[in-house]
Amino acid sequence: MSASPRKRSTLRNTLGNRRRWLTICAVAAAAGLVAVPAGAASGSTPFGARALDRLAADRTQSVGTVSPKVTAEDDDDGNEADEIAEGADQYAEARTSPGIVAPGAYGAAWDDLSNLPSTGGSWRNITDLPYDSDDPRYRDIDSNSSGGSGNVTGRMAAMAADDDGYVYAGSAGGGVWRSRTGGGHWQPISDGLSSQSTGALALDGTGRLWLGTGEATTNADAYLGSGVYVLSDPHHGTFSARGRVGGDELESTTIHELRFGGGKVWAATSEGVWSHSTKTLKGAWKLEFAPNPAYLPGGSLASDPSAAYKNIANDIAIDPKDPSKVILAVGWRSGDDYNGFYTRGSDGSWQRVSSGFGDLPTDADNVGNVTFARSADGSRYYAIDQSPEQLNTNPDSGLEGIYRAASPSGPWTKIADYTQLAADGSALTTSGYMPGVQAWYNQFLTVDPSDPNHVYAGLEEVYETKDGGGTWSTVGPYWNFSFPCWSIDPAKQTGDCGQTTHSDQHGVAIGRYHGKSFVYVGNDGGAYKRPVHGSQDASGHATDWTSLNDGTIDTLQYYSVGVGKDLDHGGVSVTGGLQDNGQSVLRSNDTVMGSNFGGDGGDTLTNPANGCELAEEYVYLAIQVTQNCAVNDGSWITDPARATSYNVAPADNATGEARFIAPLAADLKDSSTWIAGGRHVWVQTHGYAIRSGDEWKSVYDLGAGRTATAVAASGGKVYAAWCGPCNNQGFARGMSVGNADGTGWHDITLPTTGADGTVPNRYLSGFAVDPKNADHVFLAVNGFSRHWTEGPGAGVGHVFESTDGGTTWKDISANLPDVPANSAVVTPNGGLAVATDLGVVYRAPGHTRWERVGSLPAVAVLQLKLGPDGSTLYAATHGRGIYTIKVRDCR
Questions:
Q1: Backbone torsions φ then ψ of 10, nearest 5 degrees
Q2: How far apart (Å, rounded) are the C-alpha atoms in residues 210 and 208?
Q3: In Å, what is the CA distance from 650 to each residue of 13, 623, 653, 682?
Q4: I need a surface site. Which of 36, 349, 741, 781 has the fewest CB within 10 A?
């Protein structure tokens, strides 16, 4: 089936303007960010979840706005040109508010969790199979199928490769993986570490693999790390705690880059630039430079809300001909007085570069996130510079430019800007959303070892120049939707277009396999490769990308999981919402998962009696619903009546009064009654037959400035938790209880101080209602207790119990490790399972002590669900896919 030429042109415009939302925020304590509402999509417009032109328009409106979260005294303007960043910030807020978390919190929690007794039993990964974002079964209006990304997995933050066919992929939250076959057939090699968040990977001159933990993209779900580790035999070994370099100096930091020179390894971290000898792992790291040392741990301003972004270092350029010549790129993406380039003066002190850099700016307003690269012979240096001023004032892009020099000391010549890249085959040509619009989040840069003029640069897309920046090609366009070669016909996959990569680039490496050189890129969809000297079509797009996400690597970042009976094939259908990879669908007969909704997948509802009746939250309560798993061959493009999914967002989506990942739940006793939380508590009673957002009814107004963080219902009794403000400037939380019919609503008094058992003043993240008694409810509390958190009312405890409908609460945390708790579920035998940032714990019925369920890596588990018959527990991990375990093993 194909459309008429006129219709096809219209579709290309529509599809090319579709945008997958990203989760982006600052690390730990962000600068102020501004929310612009997502907006409920029109029922007459295809691709209702989000359109690129709408995002561009929203971003234009946000330029120059000033966040109320940051004051002038913060020395950060607080202007955030991209509305995406506000939604992103919320993930970190849940774990840090009401204060600042002291270093070492996650490490201590991991030690405590590892020492808990075990319930026995083993987790089984059910998503360790290919996940096809172009699955031809799911070509409905909210799918990204036919975009050209192919098989995907979770965000890849760093890549490394050697000349023997070994490739290393460092994921955002699922650890480091090794391939011995030039990509594919992956094995995890860092599961023994207390941090599975990758910031940097680098091979040194002796073949050792260096890992900097703590992802440095300053995005929503980026976790702090536990330091730097070395693997002496990366071809065969695995990382262990014994391989940590130095002491705990770099614990609870993020690491942007590791660079080598003069017998040292240099680390650009969120707490300045550090160095260490490469000859021995012992001895402390040396702090080379921190622009604002008073904000470092132990400093006089360490507890200041802005401390986390006062010493951000992005990269280091070392002259191999003279390793004493070092240039530091230091700066917070949104701008600060300290932003700039630094080098050593004649007296050995670090001094800001103020002149001699040529086209590359040196002023604080125009130096933000920076990435360096140099040629193998040292004759060429390249740099990408993101400008805070551009971010805050230019609706089209935050990119200042790409530059070339003969020496890291300059002078530098600009060889590309966003307008040039947009004209060279980019898919991002819409005003308000052009190349480099997220240059503070997306960056990589590398030089072909055999040719100093052959460069690969990564922003949202992948760009290539073969003449030192004279001309560029977009070899990895954002997607294929906007190009004439595109087709939605399932038989053609993406028409005559070649496969592209997933968007949003983070890591790159060049290596060899069987004597041939390949470039490896890591992005929000995993890892891809092509020959270094590959082929291009007439538009400059590569025709030879290969996805390396073959199912043996599972780093999928789930926010949620849903399970229902597969009526067509027997067994169950499992779905889940993902960071920047939509919603996955795994039916009982599948050997390849499909994607029926694109964008960011938030919360998920699935009818236990029919796994193809499901709802998926995009962001800010933009909810899509389907009753056939959104199976569609794309025929809706010529006949809109053939669409099989519907946008049913409640009104808080249009006003922006809901969290980025907002809570959504079905009544335990009635799967047709749904509860959604924004500023209001919303109820609809048509179940999966809902067709319009107008069918939601507001049953309670939580109040101006408040937004729901968790909802649950059983037999018509509804619980809603909220925060407002939700950041660490005046953080407040609370709870309201009432009925689904709108009666009996009232606020619960939760004092911030008082006797033991008081629910702490931290983020309330989840309810678990006893299915036998709606007044018997459990509460999961995020963040860290006051031992680690410097903030008013941080309190203690992570799990609380009420037997009187939420009026009073008892702390039942007992021996539970001090780690953020995300959700809970009551098992059929009356036990309680709790999902934490480091795994799952369980309390047996009649017991007070907690046990560890199975043995997962140190990965965040964000949601737990029971299967339709209650015999199986499903865990949505944010970095290692979905796992299951039999409930009988949790005893």
A1: -60, -40
A2: 6
A3: 28, 8, 6, 7
A4: 349
